[in-house]
Amino acid sequence: VESTHWGKRENPPERMQPPHPSGTRHRMPTPGPQWSGKLFARSMENREKRVMRRNPMIVALALATLPAVASVYTDSFDSINPAWTTDRYAPSLFESIADPTPRNDGNVLRLGVSDADSELNRPASYASSFYNTQGRQMNISAGPVWSVSAEVYIDSSWDPINGNSRRTGLWTRDSNPVENNSNYPIFSFLSDNGSFQIRAYDSQAGWHNLGTSAFNGFDSWNTVRIESTGSSFDYYLNDTYLWSDLTYSATGFEDLRTVYLQAYNFGAGDYEVYWDNLTVTPAPGSAALLVVGTFFCTRRKR
User: Fold this and answer.
1) 82-88: long-range contacts at Cβ-Cβ below 8 A with a sequence spacing of 24 or more?
2) 3 within 8 A of 10, measured Cβ to Cβ
3) How are beta strands 240-245 and 166-174 bridged, if at all?
4) Cβ atoms within 10 Å, residue 242
5) Which residues of 64-91 are buried (b: 16+ CB within 10 A; e: fewer)?
6) pLDDT, tens digit, 9 for 90 and up, residues 27-63
7) Which residues neighbour 28 within 8 Å (Cβ) at sequence distance 6 or greater?
8) Predicted local confidence at residue 143, as pLDDT
9) How far apart are CA 232 and CA 147, in angstroms?
């Protein structure tokens, strides 16, 4: 069982989707005491989507005038940016190397852990499972809607038939200055105890199993993406939507503050994993919704 420093339980229950707010189809309901800010925002978003479906030509023309969404930060790991700093405990490897996979595409990040840094072998001040999570972090600001994606290579040593213990993940953190109130959306791969899982972390309920239907298989690259939409954290694997976490950031703290690349030291043998093409952008849907929202407001005035 993997531990986290939040002390949240494993195997979270399924989260219920909030009910759709009442109201007529053609009249925009007015938020009252019974409305939460998130529900009202969601109703506005649904209204904009209907406008998009009914007026595809106008929306398409509007979108065509938009510039491409610029990245806030990209990292192809041709070298290691010194802004990557140790989180919790330093991994044995965090280095740029020539892509050793069949793709053979430039340089990639090699992230590795070693038995020499396992719980039994670390200095006494680091002798707890908290420091089994070993990786680096970078402070990157984006928001309030944002998207973080990266590519990860999962080799055949992760196949549970081999009996190895492996874990790696793309972590993010919102901008809440109070640690106990912050959200950590995490996209994690785990091979342990005879099973292979792809999981997301819900800061209230713990780990959520995303399934493996969109997984490209072992000995292949997979693209993971976390999107902060303004009301949820959405998880995508290889451009396939998997799940929405409705445990969202507190109002005013929706911005992205930190990105992490982590591995976990089980003390059961050295291993390494490859990451590449980390990209932080405004959430892809935000520009489109802005155009539709502008069109909707103009249409309402007429």
Assistant:
1) 83/138, 83/139, 84/136, 84/137, 84/138, 85/136, 85/137, 85/138, 86/136, 86/137, 87/133, 87/135, 87/136, 87/137, 87/260, 87/262, 88/130, 88/131, 88/133, 88/134, 88/135
2) no
3) unpaired
4) 19
5) eeeeeeeebbebebeeeeeebeebbbeb
6) 334 444 444 444 444 554 555 545 445 555 544 444 4
7) 43, 47
8) 87
9) 12
User: Do residues 283 and 227 touch, judged by C-beta distance below 8 A?
Assistant: yes
Residue 109 to residue 278: CA distance in whole angstroms? 10
Residue 248: count of CB within 10 angstroms of its CB: 20
Q: Band the pLDDT of 7: cuts 50, 70, 90.
A: very low
Q: Which two tokens stand for residue 132?
A: 């089994």
* Number of residues that this document lists for the chain: 302
Give the C-alpha separation, 185 to 255, whole Å.
12
Which residue in 200, 286, 194, 214 sits closest to 8, CA to CA?
200
Lowest mean pLDDT, pick from 8-12, 69-73, 185-189: 8-12
Q: CA 190 to CA 198: how far, in whole Å?
A: 6
Q: Which two tokens stand for residue 31?
A: 């938020």
* Residue 60 identity (one-letter amino acid): A
What is the 3 state secondary structure string of 203-215?
A: CCCEEEECCCCCC
